[in-house]
């Protein structure tokens, strides 16, 4: 007969039921949190990424100037160096470009647009990839073959080339009806359709393992529909690798947007993004106005590097073989 320890008994002699711990308490006591706090590189990357994302989202309230409002611009303020230079001014901390736009404000607004495009592109890619991966892995047969062959064909092309092809096709279809809002969503669709393959292949592999487990067979026996089994039972068990891919792909999506805008097929120069700012600044680099291109480039590099480091840490933290 089992003996219940005295400290596990309640006042009436019955076994004491452990108190239910909050979600925050369980998180701070998890292996992932301890792995995060043991790496100062990861904590620094998280701080930089969070700082850049928060300042970008709060750009309308943080930026000292509105760099894309013609009413607030003056050509007399053009080509001013950063504030620490001889001709610099405190109201333009990182200098101005030829049109008198504040570089610091432009970086904040541009980073905001790049992050939003990257996030929406990753969300679209994850949605398409997860749905197709679940269908291919669960049903198999013809659906699996068709989806995976399409994925294999797309893998033969670099993501930037796929994005250029989709972007060019969309622009050809809309013709002269292009607008800043339409171009914004064309970039989101281009990035989304360029990165879905990784999600689909990963989710398909995990679904092939999960579909033969007891909980899936039990769900079939009680008569649950296939969509319910896929999205309520199988999907929560395959999201670990998806989170890692999404984190890394966010950095790739920001780079893709910047590349497309730098090549002139993305957002127009009148719309702020890190790519357009680097494209504009590149024209004045050899004239001595280095600050116009250097600071957007530093912001892009810092954002991409910090997000990549977080993705690498998350991949190791969620890998049970490395615990």
TrEMBL record:
It is found in: Cell membrane. Pfam families: BPD_transp_1 (PF00528), OppC_N (PF12911). The chain crosses the membrane at residues 40-63, 115-139, 146-166, 181-199, 242-267, 290-314. The keyword Transmembrane helix applies. It is a multi-pass membrane protein. Residues 111-311 form the ABC transmembrane type-1 domain. GO terms for cellular component: plasma membrane. Keywords: Cell membrane, Membrane, Transmembrane, Transmembrane helix, Transport. Belongs to the binding-protein-dependent transport system permease family. This is ABC transporter permease. The lineage of its organism: Bacteria, Pseudomonadati, Pseudomonadota, Alphaproteobacteria, Hyphomicrobiales.
């Amino acid at each position: 007969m089992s003996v219940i320890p005295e400290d596990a008994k309640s006042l009436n002699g019955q076994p004491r039921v452990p108190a239910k711990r909050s979600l925050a308490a369980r998180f701070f006591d998890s292996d992932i949190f301890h792995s995060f706090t043991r790496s100062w590189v990861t904590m620094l990357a998280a701080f930089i990424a969070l700082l850049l994302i928060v300042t970008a989202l709060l750009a309308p309230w943080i930026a000292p100037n509105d760099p894309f409002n013609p009413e607030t611009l003056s050509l007399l303020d053009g080509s001013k160096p950063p504030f620490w230079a001889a001709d610099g001014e405190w109201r333009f901390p990182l200098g101005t470009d030829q049109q008198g736009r504040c570089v610091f404000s432009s970086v904040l607004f541009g980073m905001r647009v790049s992050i939003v495009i990257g996030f929406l592109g990753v969300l679209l890619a994850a949605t398409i990839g997860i749905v197709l991966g679940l269908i291919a892995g669960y049903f198999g047969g013809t659906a699996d073959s068709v989806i995976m062959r399409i994925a294999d064909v797309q893998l033969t092309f670099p993501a930037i080339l796929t994005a250029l092809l989709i972007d060019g096709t969309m622009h050809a279809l809309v013709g002269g009806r292009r607008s800043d809002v339409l171009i914004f969503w064309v970039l989101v669709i281009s990035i989304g359709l360029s990165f879905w393959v990784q999600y689909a292949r990963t989710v398909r592999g995990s679904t092939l393992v999960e579909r033969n487990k007891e909980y899936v067979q039990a769900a079939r026996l009680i008569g649950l529909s296939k969509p319910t089994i896929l999205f309520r039972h199988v999907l929560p068990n395959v999201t670990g690798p998806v989170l890692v891919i999404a984190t890394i792909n966010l950095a790739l999506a920001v780079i893709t947007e910047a590349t497309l805008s730098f090549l002139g097929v993305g957002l127009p120069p009148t719309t702020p993004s890190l790519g357009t700012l680097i494209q504009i600044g590149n024209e004045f680099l050899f004239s001595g106005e280095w600050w116009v291109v250097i600071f957007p480039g530093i912001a892009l590099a810092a954002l991409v590097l910090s997000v990549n480091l977080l993705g690498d840490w998350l991949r190791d933290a969620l890998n049970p073989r490395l615990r």
